[in-house]
Amino acid sequence: MAQQSTLMGFVHRRRRGAELFLLVLALVVGIGAYAAVGLGVQGKVPADMLGYGGWLAALLIGAHIVIRFVAPYADPVLFPVVAALNGLGLAVIHRIDLAKQAEGDAHDFAQQQLTWMTLGVILFALTLLVLRDHRVLQRFTYTSGLAAIVLLLLPLLPGIGATINGARIWIHLGPFSLQPGEIAKVLLVIAFAGYLVLHRDALALAGRRVLFVDLPRGRDLGPILAMWLVSLGILVFQQDLGSSLLFFGLFLIMLYVATERPGWLVVGALMFVGGALLAYAAVPHVRIRFDIWLHPFDYYDSGQSYQPVEAKFGMGWGGLIGRGFGDGDPNRVPYANSDFILSSIGEELGLTAVMAVLMMYGLIVERALRTALICRDGFGKLVATGLASAFAIQVFVVVGGVTGLIPLTGLTTPFLSYGGSSLIANWVIIALLLRISDQARRPMPTISDDTAAFSQDDTQVVRIG
Amino acid sequence: MSELTLFLIRIAYLAILWIFVLSAISVIRSDMFGARVPEAARGGRGAGKAPKPPKQPSKRRGAPTHVIVTEGSNVGERADLAQGTILIGRGSDAQIRLDDDYVSTRHARIAASGDQWFVEDLGSTNGTYVGSVRISQPTTITLGTQVRIGKTILELRK
Question: Which residue ranges traverse the bilayer (chain B) (predicted)?
Fold first, then answer.
């Protein structure tokens, strides 16, 4: 604790210059990828290079200026890393568009993604502008929890819900279709954080010890049981393995962080294994996914494992430094631009680029956890931890699925994949993280030190008589 | 476009990607190697490598080494005198934290001046007593002098 006093006096530098420098590099990454796609596929720098690059630069530098004004102490690394990932994602989606065009299946997913990105960045700036203090969110604990559950249930409603590729996680609103689960993710983190900040003492202290593990009290199991049921419900009714794992894992990590009790992890892991076994036995969709993971080549001829196996072929063909943009065949993999975008990167840019991408995700998670460490209030700590772990689980689930480490589940690769809801939700997540880190790194407000007056010996006691 | 140009473009792009990742890491290198604390912020103690050693040998045998709570709800809590000024109170920044309703957040402090130790009231509500006298200015205390704060009694010990 003696160190505390020196740390209190330590003022974080703003580092906005460093952020601008990194942002320029990130723009080089994004626009460079676009140019490399043009050179590799069409043999010339794309005609709309200036317009595209200018738009991207204007958008991101605009967001940077907003950060300068409203969150001057925010973390300098998060925003450029996200910008680079998004730029790379846009270029790879454009590359797959070009490959599809060559096959006569014209789509302009990259253009749509750029529109979504613009919306995402605008929402990012708006979040920073409107939300000046993240602690305000604590008031909406139960509101956001309720909203999240409603959003999760929406796809099940007949009429607006839709089943796409076996998973019922979409809703149609007029011309748009979106995945409410992505937005529910952010709301759930806020709800968990608000709930746990209030109840963590009851969850942490009560309970008994069995075999070196502190087991929580029976009645405190209520929320964890509810969350387990929700996750299981998503798994059974929406057939969405990824989201189910994401929500339950997220809740478990936040519970563990809030209470510092490994007992929750033990209980949660057992419940997860139980739920997974149950799902394996009861849901055919899950069983097929699991079998395909174990024996992908057995299902290749029937076409059921065409996608993961082609992805593996692609990544193997790419090798260490990849085929180069234009020389690979990433569009052989169905949904190469959304779920399997990482295999496209692995094929055309190789392991070197995949590692760089994973490093960037690692950096985002590290910065978010660092923010949680230096944050001064419990709610902010928990929100930052929750967002970091949501991000980490999502990347683990999707990258693990694509590379064959774990059974394949449908989650988007944050910032890379084509998909509007995911992109917008992730930009808002980054805005929240920047807001919390701005609050955390800002120098302590000076408390008027009225005790100082007493420590000086100005007042003298005068004895009379 | 020749094979070689494409190869060079690919290598150049991978290089850009990694330059970006590495410069992002270099921006946060203070996370790994610790932040540089400016000389001024280290304050008296930091500039302090020099003045500190002469202080240590001057310590006579029988000089007090720590403050201990002898009565009250926090009996046994102690703080080392070597760390300089000791703040006593209910606040979290106090070296001796007392869970006593009659103690103010920043109640009193114990500081050294030369060989002597002083206790000083920091404008507390219920006052600080040395023996039975409520003090109004820094008061010298010696080994075993009872300092009463609220319902708590503290002493200097060797």
Answer: 6-28
